[in-house]
Amino acid sequence: MSHAYALPAARVLTPVLPVVAVIALLALPVAQGGQGGQGGATLADAASGAVVLCCAVRLLYLRRRPLSPTAAVVLGLPVVGLAVAAAGAEVPGTAVTGFARYLQIFVVVPAAVVLLVRDRRDVRLLAWSVVGLAVWQGAIGVHQYVTGTGASYMGREIRAVGTFGPGDIMGMATVVAFGLVCAVGLALGSAPVRRGHLPARAEPRAWERGWALVCALLLVVPLAVSFSRGAWIATALACTVQLVLAGLRRAVRVGVVVAAVAVILVGGFGVGSALLHERLGSIGQVADAPDHSVSDRYALWAAAAGMWRERPLTGVGLKGFPEHRDGHATLALSSGSDTEGAGAAYRKQPLLSPHSMYLLVLGEQGLIGLLTLAGSWLALLVLGLRRLAQARRARNPGLDCGLIAFGLLVWHLVNFTYADIGGPSTVLTAVCLGLSAWWALAGPDGTVAEEAAAR
């Protein structure tokens, strides 16, 4: 009897609770002013340090080697490029700060998440936590849009930014997109179980998948009124990949539901129809007649490419883009972007990055940095896709976890084409990359750590 009562307690005290705390802290309002949300440590960043500490204590208690050889190589590969770029930076103090930030987001926190996740139930707990955060931020964003208390957009304070404020204009859109991808993965549910086999008790029930579908449909609204073209594109592609991998029949059914909801919201109720139509139309005009923000982005991309041509192997060093920007940018680059609204006064936001993760890494870390960082992501993509194929062939009931993890990875790989890291929501990127890495690297027992040899 004692063992029967110990199991539920063990499930409640899951080791991913510190990760859930990191996600929950992102629901708190972000202080405006100063750096405008683009820099500085937050409570969520501090909590991510506690996640790493909890992971280290757990490994010592369980007497496990930190990572399997394959996981260590894949997750540790970016350290090579980061170390080379930090060593070659012209301002050592700034380079050290950048080195620590990159390690936090792309190496240490994802590795800690990988090691703390025990099984598919932990993955679903984290996924539902992200969905809950997205619903909260999305509800605030929709209220901002309806009441005209959001960030400034085309002269009107209607842009949904949640609690992140205009200083982190992409924060709410990123969180809502993550939640939508997780909700879609949960809604697709498990793969069909073989005849004669009983489903696992831990698998999601029909009501859980139904609520996930409801959340996914609701999150479409705040994502739309965020007016973030990049988030729209990345989310659409990630969800399409999830649907195709789940099966064509499911893809058709879900596609019909989404199309019907979109017609009702936009066509029937006219939810932001004029502004959304204009914003959608601007996606196809970025080459012919780009707006001011797109022109600035092209100029920043050209500056990053110029830095790479100057130092092709090692780049200009970590955090070196702002210092070298003016020496490589064209006259078309403006002094910054205007931000105001959502409780913040007007300010000019400096353009301190190329708004493309690949070009930022290429300019600051050179080919060595890009190959190591992108190589790690490519390895996760290949390993994750292979495990998804194996799960489908074996009719694995945990396919939904694979769809969540793979969808999040696809979202990042697409979004990094025209966005980079920055702002309070960045720590959630580390958590999502950790989920993707767990699916790609975990063995049949759901762990990537090895038992230490007892002596």
Descriptive overview:
The protein is mainly alpha-helical and 455 residues long. It has one domain. The chain has 16 helices and six strands. β4 and β5 form a beta hairpin. α6 packs across α7. The longest helix is centred in the C-terminal third of the chain and has 37 residues.
Poorly predicted segments: 1-10, 34-38, 191-201, 451-455
Record the strand order, biggest sheet. Answer: 1-6
Number of helices: 16
What would you call the shape? Answer: globular
Helix content: 55-70%
- Gyration radius, in Å: 22 Å
The main sheet comes to: 2 strands, antiparallel
Structural class: mainly alpha
End-to-end CA span:
33 Å
- Whole-number tally of structural domains: 1
Sheet-strand content, in percent, reads: under 5%
Average pLDDT rating: 81
Instruction: Give the SSE string.
Output: HHHEHHHEEHHHHHHHEEHHHE
Report the strand count. 6
Keywords:
single chain, 455 residues, mainly alpha, two-stranded antiparallel ribbon, 16 helices, 5% strand, globular, disordered N terminus
Topology:
Elements: H1 2-12, H2 17-25, H3 43-62, E1 64-65, H4 69-87, H5 92-116, H6 120-147, E2 151-153, E3 156-159, H7 171-188, H8 206-224, H9 229-246, H10 248-268, H11 273-283, H12 292-310, H13 321-328, E4 337-341, E5 344-349, H14 357-393, H15 399-415, H16 426-441, E6 450-451
Antiparallel strand pairs: 1-6, 2-3, 4-5
Helix pairs in contact: 2-3, 2-6, 3-5, 4-5, 4-14, 5-16, 6-7, 6-8, 7-8, 7-9, 7-15, 9-10, 9-15, 12-13, 12-14, 14-15, 14-16, 15-16
In short:
The chain contains 16 helices and six strands.
